[in-house]
Amino acid sequence: MSFLWPSMLWLLVLPPLLVLMYLWVLRRKKREALRYANLAMVRQSIGRGSRLRRHAPPLLMLAAFVALLLGMARPEAYMTLPSRTSDVVMAMDISGSMRAGDIEPTRIEASKIAAKNFIKMQPRDVKIGITAFAGSALLVQAPTIDRDALATVIDRMELQRGTAIGSAILVSLKTIFPQAQIDISMMSPQERAMAQRGGVALGQQTPGAPEPKPHTPVLPGSYENAIIVVLTDGNTNTGVDPIQAARLAADYGVKVFTVGFGAQPSGGVAEFAGQRQRSMLNEEALRQVAEITRGAYFHASTAEELTEVYATLNREFFVETKKTEVTAFFAALATALTFASVALSMMWFSRVF
Questions:
Q1: Cα angle vertex 122, ends 126, 314, to 5°?
Q2: Rounded to an integer, what distance in angstroms lies between the CA atom of residue 190 and that of residue 138?
Q3: The dihedral of CA 173, 176, 178, 180: what is its sign?
Q4: Beta carbons of 129 and 175 less than 8 angstroms apart
Q5: Which residues contact 99 (CB under 8 A, 6 or more apart)?
Q6: Which domains does the chain have, with CATH numbers?
């Protein structure tokens, strides 16, 4: 626990002084009691239970005072709370290698089922967008709360050649920040055309839109309103370097969570367009992307593991541990202890102390 106003902690010298004062008062009362002629009657009238009752209300009041003083120093503690994530952009690999059958029925079908289940787990007010990528990346569904529309888009995905993970990150980032000036010099002309066809005008200003402001880099992972999830079974072989794209996402504070998919450590084999394709999962690159953006990397070897990964991601997105001011807790505790002290004193002695 830490304190925003630690200088107020010097007030904690007051409770020991109050304890000394209380002991002095008790000692004084004890001296007055010695004036009774029959000491046995005094001891009998003040039994052990009576002594405990006599001290309980003052002790509760002292605890309330300590809680109040700690609250004045504005304490902070790490707490697990619901996050403020409102947008999720899912970047899904639709390269030819996703046809591999090492995961039943195929990688692409298993990923579609897991993605739709993941969407169902999200709170209704969370908008979800979908970027599909193979040799280029395309925003196939702008962020929406329409779960049926998302499921339809996923079902209609068709496999293509190539794997452009970095381009998928850029398109997803532009989806989150539509007015941002994303550097597209790393993208090929074909990718720029595809992105613009999907409604993501990279590097261009929408007519009538406010003039974009130069972006000032923020702390990686500090943007809380949106995240990017990348699912792939392969390695980038075209488009933007994913590490460069990750650094740009980090400059905007967006976390990128990466998921490597496939049962074969050395890559799966699939037939696509009459040719056999082997996908080589580059886990190191996916780990670097996640590390740079303060996200996390996961690997799934089966459809069940992929579903579990998405469930874990759901907990990562919407529950977070962060340092939170807990002054209100100490104020409430002080109030409760005060009421308890007064109530016990009135119930036992018909007076407040």
A1: 115
A2: 11
A3: negative
A4: yes
A5: 106, 107, 108, 159, 270, 271, 272
A6: 2-79+325-349 (no CATH), 83-301 (3.40.50.410)
How many residues would you count in the chain?
Answer: 353
Cis preceding-peptide flag for 105 (omega within 30 of 0): yes
2: how many CB neighbours lie within 10 A of its CB? 11
Residue 245's CB: how many other CB atoms inside 10 A? Answer: 32
Q: What is the reported pTM?
A: 0.65
CA distances from 69 to 3, 11, 15 (A): 12, 7, 9
Tokens of 325: 């001011």
Please give the structure tokens belonging to residue 192. 């720029």
Q: CA–CA separation, 244 vs 241, rounded Å?
A: 5
φ/ψ of 2, rounded to 5, equals: -130, 175
* 324: its two tokens: 């939170």
Q: CA–CA separation, 133 vs 187, rounded Å?
A: 13
* Residues in a beta bridge with 155: none
Kindly state the helix (H) or strand (E) to which residue 286 belongs, with its residue range: helix 283-293
Q: What is the largest CA-CA distance in the chain?
A: 113
Q: What is the pLDDT of residue 206?
A: 45
Q: What is the pLDDT of residues 109-163, one digit of tens each?
A: 999 999 999 999 888 888 999 999 998 899 999 999 999 999 999 999 999 888 8
One-letter amino acid identity for 334? A
Question: Both tokens of residue 56?
Answer: 């309980």
Instruction: Judge contact between 94 and 101, C-beta under 8 A.
Output: no
Nearest residue to 166 (alpha-carbon basis) of 286, 276, 71 = 286
- Judging by DSSP bridges, how do beta strands 87-93 and 127-133 pair with one another? parallel
Q: How many CB atoms lie within 10 A of CB 70?
A: 23
In our burial notation (b when 16+ CB lie closer than 10 A, e otherwise), range 81-105 reads eebebebbbbbbbbbbbbbbebbee
pLDDT digits (tens, 9 = 90+) for 38-84: 555 555 555 555 667 777 888 888 999 999 999 999 998 877 655 56
C-beta separation of 135 from 160 below 8 A: yes
Neighbouring-strand partners of residue 226: 87
